[in-house]
Amino acid sequence: MKKAFFLIPVFVVVAFLVYLVFSEKPVEKKSQEPAPPYPYHSEDVTFTNNQADVTLSGTLTLPEKGDKFPVVILVSGSGPQDRNSEFWGHKPFLVIADYLTRQGIAVLRYDDRGIGKSTGKFMEATSNDFATDAESAVAYLKTRKEIDAEKIGIAGHSDGGLVAAIAASRSKDIGFIISLAGPGARGTEVISLQSELIARAGGASEDEIAVIRKLNGKTVEILTKTTDTTRLRTELAAFFQKNMDSYPAKGLPPGFTKEQLFTAQVNAMCTPWYQYMFSIDPADFFSKVSCPVLALNGAKDLQVDAQQNLPVIGKAVKVGGNANVTVTELPGLNHFFQKSKTGHPSEYAGNAETFSPVALAAMSDWIKAEVR
């Protein structure tokens, strides 16, 4: 049985959380995946987050010629992910690292805490904790003689975009950040719209979407009124059980029964990560970022809608007094920056493309312009 990472929108609340989905189909190597020998240096490294007593393990790729390189730290979205951010044969962080390093930009990517060769407990961590991991990566890179300490950036995908903003809002050692389909609006707003967009793309009628919208509202109400997780678990389980039959089948993620969906929801909503995500406003962090910011979204991203989130990021950065922000919506790309027909999650695994060359060029061109 093959295990793969998959971003799944569940009902109202798990906009960025990654669940493990099991597939019997063999996972083939994707066409964009590079193969050694690479025309650059690749080194396995470790660094420590002393604040959390966590050792993170990753891969640092360095251009073959030159020194004092600009560098990008890749930060994954929510859910337990390895340094390649692998899901169903796709390795987007490997593809990004390969492309940028060939362009003269060093890249550090690492296993999430508690995943792969990294220590720590993933399920006990919040986005704020993951930001301390990213800050530890920055501190480590400052010790490397090959790296230009003035040109250390963070590029985060999905929730990783928020992590990048959190880190940059309090660290002057970060030279730039890139939000790849990261949230700008509040979590409740992002996930409510997400569930409607994906249900619609999956063929749900407007009447069925109205049911989802109503259930979303009630779920948010329960979350707002209940802070004790033991009581929250009980109330959510009772609410989902009562409303299970009315939830439209076309709103289910691929391969999920209603029972599996609602069990996953209850477990997710009671985690520290979700409780933190529910309580904060990403705009508060973006408004405190003083370094250059690039925010990219696919126009067919149904999980973090471009029209909902990009304007908020751009406005927040400028409100904070930082005019160096670029906001770009890329036509035809989904949440993973793949060419997509509808953007529906069911298209992720079978897509021949791992990460659009258009998005890769947008990142590379912007970084090189900023670090000149």
Automatic annotation (TrEMBL):
Domain Serine aminopeptidase S33 as annotated: residue spans: 96-188
First-level EC class: hydrolase
E.C. number: 3.1.1.1
InterPro entries with a match to the protein in the record: AB_hydrolase_Est10, AB_hydrolase_fold, Hydrolase_4, Pept_S9_AS
PROSITE patterns registered for this protein in UniProt: PRO_ENDOPEP_SER
Cross-referenced SUPFAM superfamilies: alpha/beta-Hydrolases
Gene3D superfamilies: alpha/beta hydrolase
Keyword set, alphabetical order: Hydrolase
One Gene Ontology MF term: carboxylesterase activity
The protein's name in its UniProt record: Esterase EstD
Species of the source: Dyadobacter linearis
Lineage of source species: Bacteria, Pseudomonadati, Bacteroidota, Cytophagia, Cytophagales
